[in-house]
Amino acid sequence: MLALAAPGTAVADSIDGNFPTADEVGGEVFPRGVQAGDRFPTDWDIYDANGNKTDVSKLIKGKRTVLAFFISAVPVSVDELTKLQNAFTGKGDTQLLFVNSDQVGGKLLGVDPIQETARTVRVIKREENIKHPMFVAPNDALSPTGLSNKLGFRGLPTVFVIDKNGKVEKVYVGPQDWSDTKV
Question: Are 125 and 134 in contact (CB under 8 A)?
């Protein structure tokens, strides 16, 4: 369905497959997103690797956290998981959590997209020998209220380093050389 804002001007939405307009995302093509110094938002849906809904605030509360968002359909994004695991395993008080922020085409297959994406996460965990917890966070990248717009993803992987009080220390976008990180 195509909505009109003014005669001849189309308004984008996730139903018609068009990207949101600048006005729909707060007047910017790319909203500011979460930055270092911001409180990390926890008011979004997240599911564990079995497809059970959980609470992101409980996952990160009181723990320094490296929260890595990835997309399962992009090999470089999946490869980042192993690099992060190698860099952060045994880093004392820092926990590492991986979040798949895409959805496998469950609707096309006629199955629950959360359950299908959770299945994909379990396959990646096994095939990549991932030891850290993995999650699913539904994201409608075409929606102004989608997770990627809420958090300000500019690409995946996107990694947030969050202190034990819930404030963002650093944000990394894209593949990184984690072997020499000071995080």
Answer: yes
- The CATH architecture that domain 33-173 belongs to is 3-Layer(aba) Sandwich (3.40)
Residue in 169, 171, 177 with CA at minimum distance from that of residue 69: 171
Measured CA to CA, the distance from residue 96 to residue 84 in angstroms comes to: 8
- The DSSP bridge partners found for residue 171 are 160
Whole-structure pTM value: 0.81
Q: pLDDT tens-digit profile of 61-72?
A: 999 999 999 999
Three-state SS at 160: strand
Q: Is the pLDDT of residue 182 over 70?
A: no
CA distance 89 to 112: 33
The strand pairing partners of 86, in sequence order, are none
CA 179 and chain centroid, separation: 22
Residue type present at position 154: R
